[in-house]
Amino acid sequence: MLTVRAPATSANLGSGFDVFGVALGTPADVVRVERASRTTITVTGAGSQYIPEDPDKNTVGAVAEALDAPARIRIDKGVRPSSGLGSSAASAAAAAVALNELYDRGRSRAELVPVAAEGEALVSGEAHADNVAPSLLGGFTVVTDDGVTHVDASVPVVACLPDISVSTRDARGVVPDSASMDAVVDTVGNAATLTVGMTRNDPVLVGKGMEDEIVTPERTKLIDGYERVREAALEAGATGVTVSGAGPGILAVCHRRNQRAIASAMVDAFDAAGVESRAYQTAVGEGATLYRDDS
């Protein structure tokens, strides 16, 4: 048996729609695999009742098929579905690493990115890699048609998850078809600032660089209490706040000394809006980790 822990992720980061992503220290999915004549899947943990165990309808089943690696697969969900924290990507990334090792397929982590992305296509309708790339590689990733650029980073963040759901398909449905040149120029500048911030582990630059006036404003309308939570986080010391992925999760970048206050402020602000939530005090961290069970 092999076990892989793959982290939650946050994609887009405001200015990097469908391009930027980061791995988060917590939460995470844990996937265990054993060789079998055909693939079977069992799912436990957060939101498991909403996840199909049919391999033809599960992200992990798509990964097993792509690697020609049938297995008995057990998924323990730490990342809730429809959270904006890369739930399906974490499972797909963990399965890709585990099955690649189990069957000695010899693929590098970078080569596993498109494999895991095929699993993502079952959820979003398209094989986006902005979540699976950081879950596999860790740190900060930039995904383009030419491949993935990866930077190790350890910027402190707070990820606040309200007890509401926003589907990836719905969130993509509100993305504007066009934008003004001024908005595009501003977004490019912010994305460049964020990238430099990640290379320096500078939460101030990263926070400034998350500003976006094209996609984010439309997605915030799907999250009850967003503006109240954003203002509360900034007042508590956050250097930047944005929607995590498709939402409803909200990501605040900060200095480590302010994490506790920001987490509390965000939860309290959601509570004032009549929404229960929980906050993860974490940081940009490592990608999927492989463990062997030699017993």
Give the gist of this structure.
With 295 residues, the chain is α+β, with helices and mostly antiparallel strands. It has helices at residues 59-66, 87-102, 109-124, 132-137, 168-173, 181-200, 203-209, 216-220, 226-235, 259-272; strands at 2-11, 20-35, 40-45, 71-77, 140-144, 147-151, 156-162, 240-243, 250-253, 277-283, 289-292.
Give a description of the structure.
By secondary structure, this protein is an alpha+beta fold. The protein has helices spanning 59-66, 87-102, 109-124, 132-137, 168-173, 181-200, 203-209, 216-220, 226-235, 259-272, and strands spanning 2-11, 20-35, 40-45, 71-77, 140-144, 147-151, 156-162, 240-243, 250-253, 277-283, 289-292. A hairpin with a 6-residue loop joins strand 8 and strand 9. The strands form two sheets. Strands 1, 2, 3, 4, 5, 6 and 11 form a seven-stranded mixed sheet that branches. Strands 8-9-7-10 form a four-stranded antiparallel sheet, with helices on both faces. It is globular and about 55 Å long. The chain has ten helices and eleven strands. The chain has two domains: 2-152 and 284-292, Ribosomal Protein S5, domain 2 (2-Layer Sandwich); 156-282, 2-Layer Sandwich (Alpha-Beta Plaits), CATH 3.30.70.890. It is an enzyme of class 2 (transferase). It catalyses: L-homoserine + ATP = O-phospho-L-homoserine + ADP + H(+). Residues 198-270 form the GHMP kinase C-terminal domain. Its main location: cytoplasm.
